[in-house]
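=== RUN LOG ===
request id: a7f3
mode: sequence -> structure
chains: 1
length: 369
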Amino acid sequence: MHQSSAGSTPARVLLLTKYGRRAAATRFRVLQYLPYFRAAGLDVEIRPLLDDRYLERRLGQGRLAPLHALSGVASRLLTLKDVRQFALVVVYMEALPYLPPFFERSLALLGVPYAYDFDDATFHHYDQHPNPVVRTLLSSKIASVISGASLVMAGNEYLAEYARRFNAAVEIVPTVVDVDTFRPATARPRGERAVVGWIGSPSTATYVTERQRLWEQVAAGGRTVFRLVGAGPDAIRAPYVEHRGWTEETETDDIRGFDIGIMPLRDDPWSRGKCGFKIIEYLACGVPAVASPVGVNGRIIVHGENGFLCRTDAEWLAALGQLAHDPDLREAFGRRGREWVRQHWSLQRWGHPVAGLVARAAGLATHAA
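=== RESULT ===
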């Protein structure tokens, strides 16, 4: 095993993501850890399967680009030609979505260890797919990938519980934020109307859109306005709704502009695998959160302390109404929420431990805690 020290040669690590920087997963599961990786003696190279142009087209136009995707698959397969120069390959989610796990099996045949990192219930893409052919061919794919990994990093307990069925080397690594970047506004104006905010992508905006009648009731008194960031053209269009496009440059300012942050979810297997990242962003910025008590949400929100967990429409109405009418309560919840995130869900808490996990998987002896 190599010794990690200031004068030692860094261990080369290849990190395979699905998308580039435009994807939140790439930024928060990978890019923000780069300084910690370097400090742990790792030389990390990142190769996305699909570049930001592909994702922008998909988010903006709602269309796939098959030729672009095929080019990405070809490039990923060519990676196998030079993969032996790396001490470790880290696969985020999947090397080749909707294809059998021959890439990961090839790594094993080539004698290159790999770590597997996931923060969504990817396995449900396959074992619950409506197409029986997909279920038959790929329902065991993620299990196979997990079983061959030298390290598995799971975003929450639901995912870890699944992974432990196939591999003992499982660590829970939540998706976290840098609390020096995600911080409260210096002065929060108290306007006549409370801003109930949501941030995400068109694929998750359906959780907001399907509750439109509830939001209409919340907004009926004229004390609230809903602000949706990144929801896309098919989300709710109503007089009480403001729409903003998502950009990395304005992301934190948009969240700071919320008085209340929401994360409604369905209670289904896919949602139970989610990592509550919206809530973590809200609380880090001193914004109280109201969310469905699904999966890890119930651990991030301490009900009645930094937000509310709501199952029924009546509970949602009561919680949003109480926070909308009480700015002092919002401020108190926001203070407690930010401290909770700082202690448990921040990059400052997880940076060195995650780098240590990857360094050890790459064969470095490290004292990272």
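=== NOTES ===
Residues 192 and 223 are 7 Å apart (CA to CA).
The chain has a mean pLDDT of 91.
=== END ===
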